[in-house]
Amino acid sequence: MRMTHAQMYARLLASDPAFNGRFFTGVLTTGIYCLPSCKARKPRVENVQFFPTCEAAREAGLRACRKCHPDDFARGADPVLESIETVVAEIRANPAAFPDARAIVRRSGFGATRVFELFRQHYHETPADLLRRARLESARRQLLSTEATIARIALGVGFESLSVFHENFRRVFGLTPASYRELNAERSFTLVLPPDYPLPYLRRALGRDPQSLTERLVGDVYTAAVQASDGPALLTLNLSPAVVQVELSRGSAVEAHALAVGLLGLSQEAASFARLAKKLGLARLVAGRAELRVSQTHSIFDGLLWSIIGQQINLAFACVLKRHLIERAGVPVADGLYAPPTPPAVARLSASDLLPLQFSRQKADYVITTARLVAEGKLDLASLHTLSATRAERTLLAVRGLGPWSVNYLMMRSLGFADCVPLGDTGVTSGLQSLFKLEERPDIDATRRLMAVFSPYRSLATAHLWQFNQPTPP
Predict the structure, then answer these.
(1) Residue 458: pLDDT above 80?
(2) Which 3-state string (H, E, C) describes 384-425?
(3) R_g (Cα) of the chain, nearest Å
(4) Which phi and psi angles does 75 have, rounded to 5°?
(5) How many CB atoms lie within 10 A of CB 302?
(6) φ, ψ for residue 190 (rounded to 5)?
(7) Roughly how many angstroms between the first and final C-alpha of the chain, as a whole number?
(8) Are 282 and 435 in contact (CB under 8 A)?
(9) Is 317 left (phi over 0), alpha (psi -120 to 50) or beta?
(10) Alpha-carbon distance 430 to 274, whole Å?
(11) Residue 114: exposed, middle, or buried by beta-carbon count in 10 A (0-12, 13-18, 19+)?
């Protein structure tokens, strides 16, 4: 459909990345052409001319913007992103080679402000935060795979002292380094929760579908059927205000630890987001739940199914559809619980299997065709964890049936990216309406503008907005 000048100008003002490549913006007063999403200062409408291609803009005498690089986008290249990805790969491979964030800036070749901006945009973290996570991940792997002393590992990955290492490791992983190393020989373990962890909100998240076929919350005992590395298993969490006891019926305690840390959201920067909200004068957003986290799905594929099934329907009906799919393709484990279906199991289905189960033809098609992409290795879900947020988002948006809401939901709830907004989500828009005392719920453009102040913690902002209009859980 041909867009009018006014429609294109509106997308320009919204910095809408969905229209990158559909047209290019020429600013006649500066002689520059840009992508619609360019973050440069917005020109006046009378100074703008729109072009279908970069070639057309150049023929009009304009030159490419050095901030958004429209020519690179048009030919499918992104050298700035590739440069940052190269630096991040080096950090993750050898974090000790980077003593601090200043070393990252020097290696990148960009200025400090630009590096900070690019890391937040593409990795949803500051350079210092990404470096700290890389050190912790390297140490975690070495604790399991080597017999080196804890002190040697800590200093070897770049921590300045053993005490700083212990503090950071326990905060992110809920265990001391020594306890984590013992997981190789354990069947169960106990995680330490951060002070003031809002356990009632976790219970609400874990028990959101009382009739779930894959998970069950009875009092403070949470049981979930999961697909472990060596087959379906039962994961059990005994919840208490200070600690959580974890056990997996089969498989390794290391695997159970990763599942539990994800469910509890221990690695997320909840305290940092709470400080930001208070600095913005929005302390009421985090009141009573400053340590709220985004509970992660058991697997990326499980989150992928949720993101497709939950499109444009309410939670209750999404739960019904998910239960029907699990009955059809899941694996019975024990006590009436089913392990979620695997990609091959869903890929073997046809639309005729799902239509009688209340799936629309389109939703059934999206679920099955996406599962086939995963089963055939054309969509590598496991690799998404290692990509930049930008690369992961582009990969997922290229999948038929996945739009901005689905992709951001999946990135937030299954991949752990920190700066996502499921645009169009009614829980987010109703929360924003109440938080900012708006006369009506914001549209997508207004949502994007209002949520910008919470960057780079918009995933946590989303979690708080989901709870903002809800009663306090008992």
Answers:
(1) yes
(2) HHHCCHHHHHHHHHCCCCCCHHHHHHHHHHCCCCCCCCCCCC
(3) 23
(4) -100, 10
(5) 20
(6) -125, 125
(7) 51
(8) yes
(9) alpha
(10) 20
(11) middle
Tell whether the model's pLDDT for residue 1 goes beyond 60: no
Q: CA–CA separation, 281 vs 174, rounded Å? A: 31
Q: Which residues contact 405 (CB under 8 A, 6 or more apart)?
A: 307, 311, 422, 423, 424, 425
3-class SS of residue 246: strand
Backbone angles phi, psi at 218, to 5 degrees: -120, 105
In this prediction the pTM is: 0.87
Indicate the length of the chain as a whole number.
474
Task: Dig out the tokens for 161 from the structure.
Answer: 């002292």
pLDDT of residue 172: 95
State the pairing for strand pair 63-64/32-34. Answer: parallel
The span from the CA of 317 to the CA of 473, in Å, is 22
Instruction: DSSP letter for 20, please.
Output: B
Is residue 29 a contact partner of residue 48, using CB atoms and an 8 Å limit?
Answer: no
CB 358 within 8 A of CB 320: yes
Dump pLDDT digits (tens) for 362-414: 999 999 999 999 999 999 999 999 999 999 998 998 899 998 899 999 999 99
Q: Within 10 A of 261 (CB to CB), how many other CB atoms are there?
A: 19
Distance CA 390, CA 404 (A): 13
Task: Outline where DSSP puts E strands in 249-382.
Answer: 331-334, 337-339
Residue 324: phi, psi to the nearest 5?
-65, -40
Helix H or strand E segment including 231: strand 231-239
The secondary element (H helix, E strand) that includes residue 185 is none
Residue 153: count of CB within 10 angstroms of its CB: 22
The pLDDT value recorded for residue 79 is 83
Distance between CA atoms of 14 and 8, rounded to whole angstroms?
10
pLDDT score of 450 = 96
Of all residues in the chain, the percent with pLDDT exceeding 70 is 100
| All structural domains of the chain | 5-74 (3.40.10.10), 187-267 (3.30.310.20)
